[in-house]
Amino acid sequence: MATYTYTARDASGQSVSGNVDGADEAAARDRLREQGMFVQSLVPARGSKAPARKNTGVAVQKKEKKQFFFGGVKLVDLSVFCRQFSTMIDAGVSLVRCLSVLQEQSPNPKLKQILGDIQVEVESGNTLSRAMAKYPRVFSPLFIGLIKAGEVGGVIEESLQRLSTFLEKDMELRRKVKAAMTYPTIVMIAAIVIVLVLTTVVLPNFFQVFKDLGLKDEDLPGMTVFMMKTSEFLRAGFPGRQLIFAVVAIALFIGFKQFIRTKTGKRIWDRFKLKAPVFGKLNHRIALARFSRTLSTLLVSGVPILQAMETVAGTVDNDIIGEAILNARTSIREGDRIGDPLQRSGQFPPMVVQMISIGEESGALDSMLTKIAEFYEDEVDAALASLTSAIEPVLIVFLGVVVGFIVISTLLPMTTIISQLSGGGASDE
Hints:
Blueprint: E1 2-9, E2 15-22, H1 25-34, E3 38-44, H2 56-65, H3 75-90, H4 95-105, H5 109-123, H6 128-133, H7 141-153, H8 156-212, H9 222-235, H10 240-261, H11 263-275, H12 279-300, H13 305-315, H14 319-333, H15 339-345, H16 350-362, H17 365-428
Helix pairs in contact: 2-5, 3-4, 3-8, 4-5, 7-8, 8-9, 8-12, 8-17, 9-17, 10-11, 11-12, 12-13, 12-17, 13-14, 14-15, 15-16, 16-17
């Protein structure tokens, strides 16, 4: 037996830590899950060594894991992997043989190596779910839960099919969100580049002409003076000041990323994402669609409701909604119905609560959750379409106003120059 130090969330959603004994890491995780805890980290305790492996091939696995420096396993790779895995299992191919074939034909180097390690684990007598659980950054709790349910029920090929379908739906949703944000991002980058080029390359030539003609700041319109000061500020100290600005911007970005990785920072950021103007409702709908789709997939695979709720809380990618799900899980454990605690959380609309209640009463909760997921996925599609159609003209107008402001600030002094030249010509006569 080895001792492990863990950090986990208890049934009430509070973060707890302590020590737990187990034959290995997987056994220790299972023991904590049986106690109703959602494991966040698990490492060997000081002075305690992890149990030694009997198979030398697994020792090689430890060395090979350190070779992962760059790259990752994409959702599309996992989806194809599940679909192919399911087909071979359904055709009667042995589990070890499936893993060997999938490893050989996998185009992803990281996934290829992981499959080789999993094959060694399975050959040494470990279960597929426990072998996959050693790679939490690749195989999510949902993935592990469905594989484990398939192993218990003897229908692992069905679990893999459901996983593939779920991943395909998730990829489609992510692709739509990215596609909707691509055009605005390109326009904003183009606007920034155009403004920088105009203010640092083109406008200084015009401003030098004004100075050569003897025009002072008080002789120029306010718009022109503003653009002159902006241009001087951007060009001053080149390239030292610009490098400092770039370093500060990168440091702020990295600091923000590190902040939202902390428990407090992620909670603040997730709450902001739900309350943000325009995008708040969109993020809320995405979270509800993911909650419904994930819970439906788990329940139809035979995963118990308490375990399913725990898994869903970790996959919605929002701590506020995840906490509401964990609180609902606690109430369900105490004998409450599913819909009541979800309604009390304030994060689930009445329609979702009512449909879940009806599904619970009729014994068709999984199919009702699928309908909720489809409804909110359609809502997300409609919201993205309307958002894209609204953002396009706004960005075009914004870009036109910015460029127009720059052009007008450059042309206005021309009237002053023309009037001076006209006055000088009249006096000469």
